Amino acid sequence: MSVLRMIFLALAIWGAIHPMVYFITWFNEFGYDIMAMVDAWHVNSASSGLVWDLTIAAVALTVFIIAEVATRRNWGALIAIPATFCIGVSCGLPLYLFLRSAPIKS
User: Fold this and answer.
1) Which of 19, 31, 54, 61 is the most exposed place for a label (fewest CB within 10 A)?
2) How far apart are CA 38 and CA 23, in angstroms?
3) What is the pLDDT of residue 11?
4) What whole-number distance in Å separates Cα of residue 57 and Cα of residue 92?
């Protein structure tokens, strides 16, 4: 595996674990209520801006993944879409780059 692929994989793992620590801490403190978390994301203009920034980035990444998968027929790379929306762009983007940078089988 190339150094670049290892970096993408490490970033995907970090992007999955690091944000989850904060989410789990929040859930343990305030209860497992998704709508309460969404309300917390919009507590002020700065956090609302970040939510929309990440939402737009997630949608753009999804469109890109679908277009690339349709062209390259790398169906396994579609796993990056649920990773993006269930975990975050911090996991979905490096995961997709890891999957996309795999050697082409001839």
Assistant:
1) 31
2) 11
3) 98
4) 11
What is the mean pLDDT, run by run of 10 residues, along the chain of 106 residues?
Answer: 96 97 94 93 95 97 97 94 96 97 80
- Radius of gyration of the chain measured on its C-alpha atoms: 16
Amino acid sitting at position 4 = L
* pTM for the model: 0.89
Which amino acid is present at 74? N
Residue 44 DSSP class = S
CA 4 – CA 82 distance, rounded (Å): 23
The tokens for 90 are 């911090």
Contacting residues for 55 by C-beta, under 8 A, at least 6 apart: none
| DSSP-assigned states of every residue in 20-72 | HHHHHHHHHHH-S-HHHHHHHHTSSHHHHHHHHHHHHHHHHHHHHHHHHHHHH
Which segments within the chain are labelled E, that is strand? none
Helix %, strand %, coil % for the chain, to 5?
A: 85, 0, 15
